[in-house]
Amino acid sequence: MRKEIEIYPNYTAETAALDEIAVKGVLPAEGIDLKMLYDIIYKHKNNSKYNKRLYKRYRNDEDSVPIFKRGPRFKDEDDIVNNKLNNDFFSEIVDFKVGYFSGKPIGYSYSTTQESEQETGGDDEVEIAKKHLTDFVYRNNMFDVDMETTKYAAICGYSGRLLYINLDGEESVMTVAPYETIVLSDTEVTEPKYAIRYYSTKTIDRKTIWKVELYDKQYIYYYEGNLGSLVLKKRALHCFDYCPLFIIPNNKEMVGDAEKVLSLIDAYDRSMSDCNNEVEGFARAYMVFENIHISDEDIGAAQKTGAFKYHSGSKEGKIYFLTKDINDIFTENHLNRTENNIYRFSQTPNLSDEAFYSASGIALKFKLTGLETKCGRFQAKMQSAGMYMFKLLSSSWAKRKITVDPMQCMMDFKRNFPLDILSEAQAAQALISAGVPEKIAYQIALSSIDDVDYVMQTIEEDKGDIPSLFDDDKDVQEEIDDNIISEETGKQTDSKNLLKVVSEWLKNLVK
Question: What is the DSSP string of 428-450?
């Protein structure tokens, strides 16, 4: 549960202040006033600390999961029973979304429409643009980048993404941890004017130093030192026309998927731990000796033989078990209600629900409505950030005389949903029968197809790969054609003569 100071800060005033000292979006060669830099970082400190705690909780670090820090209820006991059971709903909520939203690679493609040809410069230019976009996607393994982005966004509420030029002089992209990322914008965080990345590292002699990178639309400013005494080391070009460090938010509020149910998860952990303490701390039943004197030696002997020998004396003596009356129904109902509320309020399906074993198709998709709503919000943010990434890439490619229109770069999202191939095939066929073009029908109905252009190209190639037996011998073809049914007279040729011609041709082919 975030406090007000732990929400991502509003940097509108700081953005305006940087605009005043910048010339056309480029800061002075000496960078910015260090006090302003410290203030920007300090303003982000509480948000950074909270996000780092969330990430460490996802990793199950001992100092970041509340149940691991829980002390015993009665500390004056000699033998303290204090179980700390972590039921990791937090990671399940995050991983479920990552698998469902980005478990299938996002399809990156370049439009091949007439408008695309006009904007790009022609067919050849479109092919060049497609190749560069495809190379970028495969070179950087965007499948992995998008999964890491989704993971960070689901945990902390947003994820950073940085474009840079690698040592081979090619465009590359990396995911940046949210607790290291600050963007300054007066519009959307997916379109920053300036950005800062700051992180601590160790020198070779194990001293901690801070590194800060300040980005504008043209340069990177590198600072090093302690956060109170940074020194500008150098300024370098980054080869893009816009700020290359930007944010992909999980939602407008920039909060993680599990934050609303943290108290429920902690309550479940406490209840489970208390139940386990009860089982471990006390026996389920106690043996009672009524009006009988039993020594420790007799009890030890009984444990070996399974029988007691005793004299009750003048009073009637009894030996029996005293069992503990535990209201397990109340405990089980409490845990079930808590578990259901965790899944409900985090909009995560509970796969242990029996409905998932019987539902299919549309019914199953209705069970995923909450998750789909959550993923739809994130998809909208991903598309906005994707458009900004294409702008960055096209500005770098333009410096190498490669024309790529960012408006023609497409992102195709597919959910990692169980396949119902028969229903999808019937739906595709129905769309085609209704007059919908095949390519559009495949995109709408067939979720198993990631690259529709490749499928259409393969279909055309298969149509052209049916050769004639006589393509290599036109003379034989003409000779046979002369012996086929005459269109004018309708007279059929001698079948034996035709068979002889075909046999001779096959013999020559074998030779």
Answer: HHHHHHTT--HHHHHHHH-TT-S
